[in-house]
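Hi P.,

Sorry for the delay on this. The queue was packed all week, but I finally got your sequence through. Input first:
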Amino acid sequence: MGEDSRLAGVVALAQGMAAAHSSREVWRAAANGGRRALGGSFAALSVWERELGRLRVLVNVGERAAGEEEFPESEAYPVHQFAEITEFLHERWAGGGEPHAWVETAEGPAAGRRPGYVHQRVAALRHRGRGCCVVAPIVLHGLAWGELYVARPVGAPVFDRGDADFATVLAAVVAAGIAQTERLEEVRRLAFTDALTGLANRRAVDVRLEEAVERHRTEGIVVSLVVCDLNGLKRVNDTRGHAVGDRLLERFGSVLSLCGAMLPGALAARLGGDEFCLLAVGSPADEVVMAARELCRRAAELELGEGVACGVASTEDPIGPVLSARRLFRLADAAQYRAKADRATRPVVAGRGGADDPVVRLADEPPAAERTVERRRFRGRP
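Then the structure:
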């Protein structure tokens, strides 16, 4: 393989990873880029999980053998079976050396092979009908992260020392791409996470609710929203200090997360201040109301605070057409406001009071004067 083609392979690998929009796409792009650059028929990207003592396969690409899945759920191998992995986990290169790729063949050690014959890899090559492989360790932030594995079928040219050197370069490119992805994911996580409670924040709710209502409009899927106002936070802040108030918010956040787990895939979020919500997509309205009741019960048992006011709005209930995220939010918010005004200990559900349901009427009126614009604001489509 000439220098120009190898340079093109490096560029294609980097571009493929840069264009990916999710972790899975990044893994696939890394494995496919390495496979093509090295002229392999198969490639895998694996991560070394120190805490579990195993090498876990993230993705398999190319000509997969029987039983190999593209994104396997449980394909993992104990680290102790691979002597070279143990060396990397102990950072053998920390004294000044660098990790380097090596070659295995179905017949045994290859030229330029690191000392140590790995029977498991040779057996795997034979079992899956492959003639050779090159294994390149991936190092991230100075620590062993995983490996890039590329194989060729029986009868194809065996990887040589030059291929191993090139695989080392490709692994470094993969490491840079993974590091960039991790940084972007951390930025996204912070952008959509409430720093105090660890729940989703208002921005995350805006995005998910818009998507959910669009699915309701096009697919008819049930979308439900529980809006909660934690009672007594101001009193706690005024009498016991904001640190204690923060503890109340954290504890309620944990309760909200626990009750949200009753609804598969529900999003638990802090909207800001003492306002929280649960967004459920696909769950029946009655199950959402049950979760809201459990939330009210558990909130009333918290040592701090004075319970919670909950309002529920679901597209499965008779609340009229829900064509925008704004309308569903206003319905749930109006129900919550009614629950707070009535000092209700159970959730108020929009649309379940009959044709003259005051909550449904209230939701179509301007916000009450005593509610601030910020607390009522929702950035959805009108």
